[in-house]
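Troubleshooting log. The previous run stalled partway through. Resubmitting the same four chains, unchanged.
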Amino acid sequence: MNTVEYLREQGLKVTPQRIAIYSMLSNTKSHPSAEDIYKELLPTNPSMSLATVYKTLDSFKSIGLIQELSVGSGKNNYDADLSSHAHIVCLDCGNIYDLEVDISNQLNNIKDKIATEKSFIISHQQITFYSVCPTCKKS
Amino acid sequence: MNTVEYLREQGLKVTPQRIAIYSMLSNTKSHPSAEDIYKELLPTNPSMSLATVYKTLDSFKSIGLIQELSVGSGKNNYDADLSSHAHIVCLDCGNIYDLEVDISNQLNNIKDKIATEKSFIISHQQITFYSVCPTCKKS
DNA sequence: TTACCTGCAAAACATTTGCAGTTCT
DNA sequence: AGAACTGCAAATGTTTTGCAGGTAA
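Second attempt completed without errors. Output:
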């Protein structure tokens, strides 16, 4: 599906800033913060402001185009990958990695259990594992 | 085990502020923020400062006496319950509830999978489900 | 045209830090 | 006595907000 059309469909205007932000976010696996995005786009978009990045991320989040992560670093991180996947945060360097392990069976299992034992209907979840990444383990 | 002794064992001094903070935290299921703790203790400890609450929570965290949660509210929340349990955050009121459902089987399953498929050794994890709590669903 | 968006600057929060004085051990 | 802790105030870092001008539809 087409992101440009989806934005219009949701009543959001399509601006160069928004295209740049979404395109950067959907082409990285690094889970950048608002400031990371701002700094990376600045060379090619010199007039971009940090406030616009924040506002845009907020708009994208409310129409479900991206997801926001809180892993305890003091800042939020953003992910355009909406598939239900977990993350691994390195306790040393702070990098956030996708957990490339299929946990859908276990997750569905838990959600079924919650549905039967509790009166909560889960909307979504955030699953974060903390570890030391292979690179940091070496040094 | 005795918390007072544990603090001394870990080289931390036992002060009235620390006792008040730990005692408050271990007697609640509300997962308070630093400021929540400060405000609740202020009537009985009028000289307590917010900076001390932050410093104390940080000390407690580093000796593994409490755990810090980041659920995306913009502030950190604290929990003296160290058992490996998940949380449910209400998308409406923001309250954080313990998920009183045993997910240890599924969790061990996932960790085993990570251990065999990836070279990450998991230290700990944070599992947060988002939903609307029964109270908010009514209104 | 008009409603929405951008960029700027200021404001609002959450958290950390430095320091002088106090309190545990 | 000595090291660590507290409280205060100032500083820091992240995110939000208000507003005037600009841009997409």
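Takeaways: The first helix of chain A runs from residue 3 to 9. Chain A touches chain B at residues 68, 70-72, 76, 86, 88, 91, 99-101, 103, 106-107, 109-110, 113-114, 117-134 (CB under 8 Å).
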